Structure formats: C-alpha cells, structure tokens
Amino acid sequence: MYTFKILLISILIMFVCSCVVAPNVESKYDKTCQTYEKKVVLSIDGEWEPTQLECSSKKECKSDFIGKELISIIVFPVSAIISGTIAVVGNTVFWFNELGQCPN
Fold it and tell me: How far apart are CA 23 and CA 86, in angstroms?
C-alpha cells in the first residue's frame, strides 16, 4: 500500500511538473485611441509523455527514474519564476509605452 501511494504521487508530480510556463504577448486593437494594447500573459505549455527507461539493472532503472523526477520537479518552478519576471517587466514596459498615447 505504501509503495502504491509513492508511485501514485510520483506519477502526479511528473504529470504536473512536466509542463513549462511560457510568456506570450497578446495584443488587441483599441478603436478610440487607434492603437494596439499589448500585454504579456503566462501560459502552461507541454504535455506529459511517459518515456521508456532504457536500463540494464533494477538499480540503474531506479536511479534513472528518480533523476528524471527530480529534474521535472525543478523545471516547473524555475520556468515559472523566470517567465513571471519576464511578464512583469514586459507588462511594465508596455504600460509605460501606452501611458502617453491616448488621453482619456
């Protein structure tokens, strides 16, 4: 029962953490000012695809699986922090750019 819980949690972690957060620029046209308003939004890209482990021994398979799981746990938060920083800076630049374009 304990092994089943660990396996289930590991699969769920790998499913969530295999995605990567990416910044995307969206723009829409403002008819009153006749300009494009841009903003940076975050989206989650990626799909979970299980990979087949190629190993010769049980110990090698275990270490390979744990290594891939640890990498996936690290990738998601790091990509979220970096992409979030890019979004904040990009939105600030777009806001300053749009600040003086259309007095309403």
Answer: 7
